[in-house]
Amino acid sequence: MAPGKGSLTTKIRHLALAIDARIDSGLYTLGARAGEAWRAWRDFTDRFAVSGFRKVAVDLSCEALTLGVGAGVVLVALAQPAFRLTEREDWLKQTDLAVTFLDRYGVEIGRRGIRQNDALELNDYPDYFISAVLATEDRRFFDHYGIDPMGTARALTVNANSSGVVQGGSTITQQLAKNMFLSNERSLERKIKEAFLALFLETRLSKQQILKLYLDRVYMGAGNFGAAAAADFYFGKSARDLTLAESAMLAGLFKAPTRYAPHINLPAARARASDVLDNMVDAGMLTAGQVASAKRNPATALDRKRDFSPDYFLDWAYDNVRALAEAGKLGDDRVLTVRTTLDPLAQRSAESAIENALRQYGSQWGASQAGTVVMEPDGAVRALVGGRDYGASQFNRATDSLRQPGSSFKPYVYATALLAGVVTPTSTVVDSPVCIGNWCPANYGRSFAGSMSLTTALVKSINSIPVKLSIMLGKGNARIGRARIIEVAKSMGLEHELRDSTSLPIGSAEVKIIEHTSGFAVFANGGFRARAWSAAEIRTSHDQVLWLHDRDAPPPVRVLPASVVTDMNQMLTKAVEEGTGRRARIDGVRVAGKTGTTNAYRDGWFGGYTGNYVAAIWMGNDDFSSTNRMTGGTLPAQTWREMMEPLHRAVRIRPLPGVDPAPPAGASQNLPPAVASVADAAVRADVVSAHSAPALNDIGALFSGILKNQAGRAAESTGQQAPGDRRPARASPRAGALNAAACETGVSGNASRSGSRCG
């Protein structure tokens, strides 16, 4: 071994030994010092050692301190979200909307949001009204600091003895905190936030300010917030002029404003007012003699029932206004007047048609509910019915319910195929078995019809063709084809997620009525996206215009070319005139549309449109039970016609894009040639409406009858038949009556046996 190498190895060993020695010495010293410190701490704590009763007390105190610190940490953590609600400097500002709705002609149709009046000062209220509120809601209001443990204990005792909730434990300050910052959620977390916020309010506001805010913002039923608004709504007077009986009735609303609303349940409201009067006596605020008169002569509320209240439409329109406000498009104003798109005639027509249909035929067809949306081709909603009875169910089936559309979804499939150029209306398609995996769709009649045109396939609602079109769109891959169908359907208005499945082309994906209507509106308006809208104009309480739809709404976007719209309109017109939608036909008006029926007859649809209006109607049951074999072409199509036919009276009938207008019913029948040409020309020139033509027909027929009678009398003198008289020469008056009845009803009977023909 080289001398240099050995000496280096020796040095490394010595260094390692030195490091190890230092580590060992350091650890030993650290351990010794730690032991000394522990012995010193033990000797110190031994001085505090106790035994016997003192030990029990100390242990309990330590546990309480530990739990208290832990609870404090939890409470502070839970209070942080509550305190964040007060970070804004304008936390006192009322942010809820108060909206008055007008129809398209400027007539008030209802209100939504709050109905508030905070113009009264606290001293303006009668003393007995303030006493009634305090006696019922918070007797120790002026003695506590936002939280009242004594009041809470009293409420718990009373409720326990009564086996129910008779008194509430929340103070007025806590209730104000909930109304201003929190929701009605029943949870421990909310109660903790409520307590902290009550303490916050007590430190920032005086008792008088808290009571004033409470009386201004408490909900008192029927959309009224605040005692002043409630006094005006229920009694038609200022809160300054309330009687003792009326004050007791209003104070009784705080507990359950809907249950005790006097315009809904006057007996319950009077019973509750009697309890409030008893509370005032128990609290020493009034004597039994002072309240006796109010008990003998209870208050009576105004009758606030209205014959016309489009509540489903108002709910939806209010949501739209709130969305605009949340988007910052209405500024800071919260008291608004909205002129809507609603047409009272259309709304009444839709409501009556649905109610009449379900009342007369609902049990026969096994259908108990319906919903519909009527809009103009640009998306302006003229009528909306979300159910049969708003009082029984506020669920809006027109805007919130999701139901399978069945074959009424097929127009989206056909439009996608036409848009992609894989077929044309005259293309030959084959109705034959087709399967995707283990799923093989069948037609309504459980048979296949073979070769036919694409138009015929849609008119007859053949199920195999849409499935084959999805395969063609995907060039053999049905999934890709369905993705293209979903893309087009969404662009046309079906905004809700469409669940992809093999049966999507025949209507298995759920849709909303209002979105389905918007989709059909694309065909009616020439190919533009038609978003449903309700607010034509929004103004402030100072009459300042905040929103104009024509000015502020985004312009419509074309989603289908005019050529595709023309092809679809021509095919869907035939679906009504020759196919499953024949019951939706309107005399003198070209109607296009498509029926829809789902598996087990759970849903019946008809989506249809004219040049003037678009509407989709759904009928079925809320529990998804089957109907009595009701198809879209039966009761739904019939009801659609009943609600749409009145809307086309005395209006100029607009043509459908790409479809020749229908000749007005009776425009030139039985008219002399000169009169007929004048009538037809007047309709074409828009001098008269299409539905005025029958009046011209009646006038012309009257003169024609006079001329025929004169000619008949002249012919009788010569024994010849009058010119133009097509009756059999020896037909009796009774036979003529039978012939007329047969032609009117479509039943041949005796008329056919006599050789007569209906012209």
Automatic annotation (TrEMBL):
Pathway: Cell wall biogenesis; peptidoglycan biosynthesis
Sequence ranges assigned to domain Glycosyl transferase family in this UniProt record: 115-280
Lineage top rank: taxon: Bacteria
Entry's EC annotation: 2.4.99.28
Record key words, sorted: Carboxypeptidase, Glycosyltransferase, Hydrolase, Multifunctional enzyme, Protease, Transferase
Region span, Disordered: 714-759
Biased composition (Polar residues): 747-759
Cytoplasm as UniProt keyword: no
Record-level Gene Ontology MF annotations: glycosyltransferase activity
Catalysed reaction, written as an equation: [GlcNAc-(1->4)-Mur2Ac(oyl-L-Ala-gamma-D-Glu-L-Lys-D-Ala-D-Ala)](n)-di-trans,octa-cis-undecaprenyl diphosphate + beta-D-GlcNAc-(1->4)-Mur2Ac(oyl-L-Ala-gamma-D-Glu-L-Lys-D-Ala-D-Ala)-di-trans,octa-cis-undecaprenyl diphosphate = [GlcNAc-(1->4)-Mur2Ac(oyl-L-Ala-gamma-D-Glu-L-Lys-D-Ala-D-Ala)](n+1)-di-trans,octa-cis-undecaprenyl diphosphate + di-trans,octa-cis-undecaprenyl diphosphate + H(+)
Record-annotated Penicillin-binding protein transpeptidase domain positions: 371-612
Entries under Pfam families matching the protein: Transgly, Transpeptidase
InterPro entries tied to this protein: Beta-lactam/transpept-like, Glyco_trans_51, Glycosyltr_51/Transpeptidase, Lysozyme-like_dom_sf, PBP_transglycosylase, PCN-bd_Tpept
Top-level EC class: transferase
Family statement: In the N-terminal section; belongs to the glycosyltransferase 51 family.
NCBIfam families: PBP_1a_fam
PANTHER family with a match to the protein in the record: BINDING PROTEIN TRANSPEPTIDASE, PUTATIVE-RELATED, PEPTIDOGLYCAN GLYCOSYLTRANSFERASE
Protein name: peptidoglycan glycosyltransferase
Organism annotation: Camelimonas fluminis
